[in-house]
Amino acid sequence: ATDNSPLRLGKGHACEGGIREPLIVSWPAKITSKTKSDFTVSSIDFLPTICGLFDVSFEDSEIDGIDFSDVLFQKVKPKREAIFWHFPHYWWGNKVQPYSIIRAGDWKLIRRYETDSLELYNLGYDIGESTNLAADMPEKAAELNQKLSDWLHSVNARLPLKKEGRD
Asked: Distance between CA atoms of 103 and 124, rounded to whole angstroms?
């Protein structure tokens, strides 16, 4: 029902066709029109950005995400070591199964809980995620998998349970 080519798969899936979408911001009095950026933003970045734009402090609170307002005003991009997704659910029957993801630069690692497997992609060369590099680059896969584990632990993420009727 969906064709997100050259991205693979669609809504809810761990592949880029399921999680990547454009972000359009319009603020004619402040932001230059037709400005483009390749900076990766997540919904967790909206709160700190809006607070930053309107000088609202949230220093006493732990806030996920980063303020990306400098990107909007064509200044220096904020530093982001990695961005994470955690989807510990079954959805749409069994079509979408639990996963966690880390994206660090062009590297993307998907941990699939149902199959206890890893997928490693270099999105700079393979935006369609057609070649899983995990077996060819085990050190890179292990490095990203450890960072993903550390993040999951730091946010006290609940890991998925096997769906009833499964081993």
From this structure: 12
Alpha helices for the chain (secondary structure H): 16-19, 46-53, 69-72, 138-154
- For residue 71, with 0-12 CB atoms within 10 Å meaning exposed, 13-18 middle and 19 or more buried, which class applies? buried
- Distance, CA of 40 to CA of 78 (rounded, Å): 10
- What SS3 class is residue 100? strand
Considering 45-59, 91-105, 130-144, the range whose residues carry the highest mean pLDDT is 130-144
Taking Cα atoms as reference points, which of 138, 108, 101, 103 lies closest to residue 122? 108
pTM of the model: 0.84
User: 51 to each of 18, 67, 69, how far by Cα in Å?
Assistant: 28, 8, 10
Given the structure tokens 């062009």, which residue do they identify? 106
Q: Which of 8-17, 33-42, 141-150 has the lowest mean pLDDT?
A: 8-17
